[in-house]
Amino acid sequence: EVLLVESGGGLVQPGGSLRLSCAASGLTVTNSVMTWARQAPGKGLECVSAIYSDGRTYYADSMKGRLTISRDNAKNTVYLQINSLKPEDTAVYYCSAALDIWGQGTQVTVSS
User: Fold this and answer.
1) How far is CA 15 from CA 101, 103, 109, 112, in A?
2) Cβ distance 14 to 86 under 8 Å?
3) pLDDT, averaged across the chain
4) For residues 59 and 49, what is the distance between their CA atoms, to the nearest angstrom?
5) With contact defined as beta carbons under 8 Å apart, do 93 and 6 qualify?
6) CA-to-CA distance for 32 and 77, rounded, in angstroms?
């Protein structure tokens, strides 16, 4: 069974940081383009970052400069470090493999 399990979300104050994790089983994260996307309340799904098999990375302009995507091949896990969080970053963050397999999401709430 192929599974992606996100974790690391929570309530954080504006200006804070979070590291989201996406643990994969049944697939190898280095063999797929791994994507982080988010869905804010009442809005559509937005791809915010991706890491390709060859290590190239992508960041959405809306969050560029505040994100770092990385992977740990030994743990078969992909991470998303988000810095300088803003209230408008409040969303459910999802991990995907090849935009085909999706995790259940992790809630990020930015509020004072």
Assistant:
1) 31, 26, 12, 10
2) yes
3) 96
4) 4
5) yes
6) 12
